[in-house]
Amino acid sequence: MADAGKDNNAALEWLKLKTDKGQKPDYQIKAEREDVGNKFLRKFKENPLVPIGALVTVGFLSVGLKSMYDGNRIRSQMMMRGRIAAQGFTIAALLGGLFFQGMKALKEAEEDIHETDLK
């Protein structure tokens, strides 16, 4: 357990180094110059499967509700099952994207620490 705390402190040293030098962290700079549309496009490029999965889920839900309203039980059941599958896909895509972004952040933090150790 003590090793995990040391790893967390080492991974966040880049933030302390930047703030000690009077610089803003990268995420704060991006947040200040990005509007909602640009942020959506950036996030879509990082993990396009999540918004696509969400749209497919809404599509299945809409068609399923319409079928339920029309009284077509068989089609309504098929659409609701499809909605569950689309939701599962969206959750898996979200978790996969978070995992890869976390690995990327750890790799960048290790590179920053290595660069500061060389100086």
Terminal residue distance:
30 Å
Mean pLDDT: 83
β-strand percent reads under 5%
What's the shape? elongated
SSE order:
HHHHHH
- Which stretches of 5+ consecutive residues score pLDDT under 50? none
**Quantity of strands, as a count:** 0
Description of the structure:
With 119 residues, the chain is mainly alpha-helical. The protein contains six helices and no strands. Helices cover 88% and strands 0% of the residues. The two termini are 30 Å apart.
Secondary structure layout plus pairing:
Blueprint lengths: L1 H10 L1 H8 L5 H8 L2 H11 L2 H22 L2 H46 L1
Helix pairs in contact: 5-6
Please sum up the structure shown.
The chain has 119 residues and is mostly helical.
Any descriptors?
single chain; elongated
